[in-house]
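Protocol step 4 of 6: structure prediction from sequence.
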Amino acid sequence: MSDRCWDLAVEIGGTKLQWAVGRPGEPWCALERRSVVPEEGAQGILRQLAEGIEPLTTQWKLRRVGVGFGGPVDVASGRVTTSHQIRGWDGFELAKWFQEVLGLPATVANDCDTAALGEATLGAGRGARRVFYVTVGSGIGGGFVQEGRIYGTDRPAASEIGHLRPGTGAEDARQTVESVASGWGLARQAVARMNHPALADRPADVADLRQRAGGKDAALDARMLAEAAQEGNRLAASVIADGVQMLGWAIAQVITLLAPDVVVVGGGVSLMGEDLFWKPLREQVRKYVFPPLTHQAKIVPAGLGEEVVLHGALLLPECA
């Protein structure tokens, strides 16, 4: 074991777990990924964490833990508020668990806030004073970092761009930006259109999407839509265009309210490419933003990839 002290970074998501040993801005000393078993709930995740991390406490001199959790948390107490994906987390004292099981002090924050801190400090937003981070995957999350610190950790939620409701007609809490522009939202919108009588003039597009999904509408996902759109499927292209428009509108509202220097966009949907995603996204932001702020924020791809939450977690103890 080296005499140098190291930190432990942990990501607890709805589908994956990650943990790593390192120091901010340096290569990982150890990195491991595992899949969540949803039916085992929170206890299954805790068991995996204990089994995987405990050996690291003897191999490395660990001083503390930073945790990015997939759901709202009370940062001050280190207590999980809830998980919208995995049962058993409501009110769980996660920081206390790390202290009791591993003997290490822990700082716990929402995973998207944690990712925002990573991108603002070490990634695509590095050097900017105000950075807003958006992740567009199965859902849509956001985080705002100003002068190196996460905004809003003293309240139940902040920067929830995916939960903006577009217009006064969106009276249902489920009518959100996320419901249209996330990976799940795109797939849902596509299936709705596939089963709409008005699309009778596009039977080939509908048949193409059903074939890609193996004949099961519920299996259709954003990756399939992107591939179809790139190969000329007009229905898929229209659904993606509508989703990107909605996301551009939402980012424009963020810029109008917060005037960040950089907006970093990550997540699987952002990997659709320049023509399907990035070019139209920037056009939609320009369309909806307050005109004096048209050139205020650079809109850039995320830079830290799958390990973004881990990079941010290393910074949490001092920046949350």
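Step 5 (inspection) to follow. The chain has eleven helices and twelve strands.
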